[in-house]
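User: Can you predict the 3D structure for this chain?
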Amino acid sequence: MSQGSDLIKLQETDLELDRERKTLKDLPLIAELAKKRASYAKLKSEATRLLADRKDAQIAVDDLDEAERSCHEAITAAQERPIDASDYRAVRDLEEELSLLAKRLDKIAFDRPAALEKLEAAREREDKLAGYIKRFEASIIEDTKAAREQAAGLQASIDELTRRREHLLGRLPQETRAMYERGLARFRGLTVERIEGNVPTVCRTALQPASMDALRHAGDIAECPYCHRIIVLNAEE
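Assistant: Here is the predicted structure, written as structure tokens:
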């Protein structure tokens, strides 16, 4: 197999390898997963906020319960307090104290429905979001599995192309290999060309008669005098 044939196959392999790597990097499902993970982070942040809202609502209800318990204890204590019925001031103070406690109980009873409604609404929002997050997590797991399967197929292809590349590079003389690698970096993959008549297939600059004469005395490959790519003169297997 000629150097020219190996170089052409090597360039084809490198171009395909570059395409496969870009495909893997830009895999739509991976990009979609990145978006979903960003959305998931926002959902978890929202869940934390709703948890705090629900706890605040629960604290408000608990405070009302505690206030109600304290009022009932105060009423019981006041009613059990020994008072001389003939002591007008003591009786009046007791009545005022019980009246004040009754008003507090009325206020607690008035505030309770709104507090309970707020707590129930907070629970519903929290439960609804928790259900949505659970479904969202299942979706991410499925997409991750699918992305891994797609990526695994592409990675297997990349590994095979890499082995082929190493094999072809190993067949080339050191000088030719160095020339190819320099051109690969410079020309972004298109470092090897053929010649059609007196025109190279990549740079498309017609060669002068003197250059053509030099090519006729070259071996399998030569260097384009204009673009300095590798010109394959013999591509026989």
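The chain has two domains: 18-171, 173-237. Residues 18-171 form a domain with the Helix Hairpins fold (CATH 1.10.287).
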